[in-house]
Amino acid sequence: MKNSAPPGLVPAQHGREMLFLRDLSARVGSDPMLVQASNGNTSVKVDGILWVKASGKWLAHATQEEMFVPLELAEVKEFIHKNAGIAPRFASKNGLRPSIETAMHAVLRHRVVIHVHSINAITWAIRLDGPDQLKERLAGLNWQWIPYAPSGMQLAREIEKAVAKAPGTDVLILGNHGLVVCGYDCHTAEKLLCEVERRLAITPRRFPKPDTTVLAMIARFSRWQFPDDDSLHALGTDAVSRKILRGGVLYPCQATFLGPVMPLLSPAVVLSKFGERLNGKDRTPPFVAVERSGVMLNEKMSSSERATLIGLVQVTQRTEESARLRYLNEVEVTDLLSKGAHGCKEPAAMDEKANSLADIKELDEERTASAGPFFAGPGSCIDSANLGLRPTGRLNSVKVRRYGSSGRKEGHARRRLQSQQSKFNLAEGDAEN
User: Fold this and answer.
1) 33's torsion region: left (phi>0), alpha (psi -120 to 50) or beta?
2) Residue 26's CB: how many other CB atoms inside 10 A?
């Protein structure tokens, strides 16, 4: 497959459309409630050419760098009908590869397509009763629910079958994945995106404050730091979020960037095993959540991992405790990790994550054993002023702070940990079973 117009030599008639697409992409990509890191993609079809976001690029940077790949739409569709891969077969002259979702953009008939990992949409998309819950919220819109399918050709085929039965469809809720909206032009598509987000909006739960005294036991290790964004602590302090995380992987990016096993530790494990097992030089996870205490970040955590973690806490804080959830099964998780989902993970990074996850899984088993019965099982369209869990600053520059601790403070923290360990079998734990 060849690209129709090399970057830098964009046909004059495409210039105006591309300007609108870049502006739209930057706005959408800068909203952490819609896009986290390099996920999400946009496209426009002009004169038989499909301009689609390149793999691994951040939409937020759409006006600052080249990130759209031009492809002949007819040729893309031919590859789809032959069931041939698209992204792996093509690279533009400056090394850009089309998004793994290129086939999805091609099969949709609308000129402009916006695919986002909307926090609100994902919160509904992980629910088994999602389709029923959304009937009233999306009433009057031309929408469809697409059950989970791996990104790429398989997802594109499911969408193609769905829209063939209802050609007017311009809103798609992707099970365990995200949201797609379409329109004739960028303005129409963005307006529809805003309306869908308004209807899907969910207010997050409040969560207990972190126990920084306990977390100080981790902070004494040089590579572990407190997050400046206190909302991240909800993964450790909020009982519902902990219960959700123990269930497994909710959506692809969670496994791709954070791993298939969440590093959720008891204070007892932190007390006895942390320095020995999770403070190595090469095999440590990007973060750890300590039950009823909070979260600590690895100083080597990447910007993509940070953005994904912020997105995950936003989802769990909007998910009802009573909701029956659809987790990705083992085959689905193994499949997406083997492919380096979305083309964003380098093989070496995947190998390192796999090694650290083996340690985390063993620690998780130790956590369960030590706890006994306690653990038996234009402008952004989103008004985020009152969303409750708003990240501070840009997602690619989440700050972390280091807390120094004197010997007296460490001793106090150790006594606190020991006290918590002795209470693990008390009635408070019954609420989480």
Assistant:
1) alpha
2) 17
User: Lowest mean pLDDT: which of 216-230, 268-282, 294-308, 357-371?
Assistant: 357-371
Q: What is the dihedral of CA 249, 319, 174, 248, to 10 degrees?
A: 10
Q: Where are the beta strands (DSSP E) in 134-197?
A: 143-146, 171-174, 178-183
Confidence at residue 15, expressed as pLDDT on a 0 to 100 scale = 86
Q: How far apart are CA 229 and CA 15, in angstroms?
A: 40
List of residues 6+ apart from 203 with CB closer than 8 A: 318, 387, 388
Q: Indicate if the pLDDT at residue 282 is higher than 80.
A: no
List Cβ neighbours of 236 (8 Å cut-off, separation of 6 or more).
Answer: 210, 242, 264, 289, 290, 291, 292, 293, 294, 295
- Give the mean model confidence (pLDDT) for residues 157-162: 97
Half-sphere exposure of 177 (CA within 13 A, CB side): 24
Instruction: Tell me the three-class secondary structure of 364-433, residue by residue.
Output: HHHHHHHHHHHHCCCCCCCCCCCCCCCCCCCHHHCCEECCCCCHHHHHHHHHHHHHHHHCCCCHHHHHHC
Q: In the 8-state DSSP scheme, what is residue 251?
A: S
Note the pLDDT tens digit of each residue in 15-33.
889 999 999 999 999 999 9
Banded pLDDT at 374 (limits 50, 70, 90): very low
Contact 393, 219 (CB under 8 A): no
SS3 282: coil
Model confidence at 389, pLDDT cuts 50, 70, 90, reads: very low
On the question of pLDDT at 229 being above 80, the answer is yes
Two tokens at 8?
């830098």
Longest Cα–Cα distance of the chain, Å, equals: 71
pLDDT band at 88 (very low <50, low <70, confident <90, very high): low
CB-count exposure of residue 272 (10 Å: 0-12, 13-18, 19+): middle
CATH 3.40.225.10 location in the chain: 12-200
Q: Do 309 and 286 meet the contact criterion of CB atoms below 8 Å apart?
A: yes
106 contacts 80 by C-beta, under 8 angstroms = yes
Q: How many Å is the Cα radius of gyration of the chain?
A: 22
Angle 253-256-257 from CA coordinates, rounded to 5°? 85
Q: What is the dihedral of CA 144, 148, 152, 153, to 10 degrees?
A: -80
pLDDT confidence of residue 411: 54
> What CATH number does the domain located at 12-200 have?
3.40.225.10
pTM of the model: 0.80
Helix (H, G, I), strand (E, B) or coil at 184: coil
